[in-house]
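Readers of this paper often ask what the protein records in our data store actually look like. Such a record has a labelled line for the sequence and another for the backbone structure tokens. Nothing more is needed to write down the fold, since each code stands for a local backbone conformation. The record that follows is passed on verbatim for readers who wish to inspect the format.
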Amino acid sequence: MVYRFSVAALLGLASLASAQDSPAPPPAPPAPPPLPPATAGAPGAKAVDDFDHDAHMHASRERHLKSMETSGAHYQRGVWSYGDYKHNIDGVTTPHGCAAACEADEGCLHWNFNVVHHTCSLKGEASGHDDGVPDWISGNAKRYVSRPKSSTEL
């Protein structure tokens, strides 16, 4: 007796056998958790992700620069580069305090204050000032005497 099977029938039997041997597909992943409410009960409150960090930084800088206008201390927008002396001065959370800490320390010639994190760093002989750094304000100690630029630095 000769059995005749078509190629399609044989392929169908093969795929049926392999489907029975393969494991079940994994379950679908769980749904993501719901987003937290913006601010409970506050009308027109922004969601946490809507906070504009850049606007906050610029407003903080302007507020701190304004507060220095009557301080009597030298101040300017930007940061002194290099000349690291002391970082994160304990208890100093304002540019006024940072300027005072620099004046009180004989080794300090410049100070840098971060307007977002409210940190103060003191500098010795720094090599340059960058007024394009928007999240810092800085100043010079009264003992600082700027030296004239040499002809090679011009």
Remarks:
- Helices lie at 7-21, 53-67, 95-104.
- Strands lie at 76-77, 79-81, 84-86, 110-114, 119-123, 128-130, 136-140.
- The chain has three helices and seven strands.
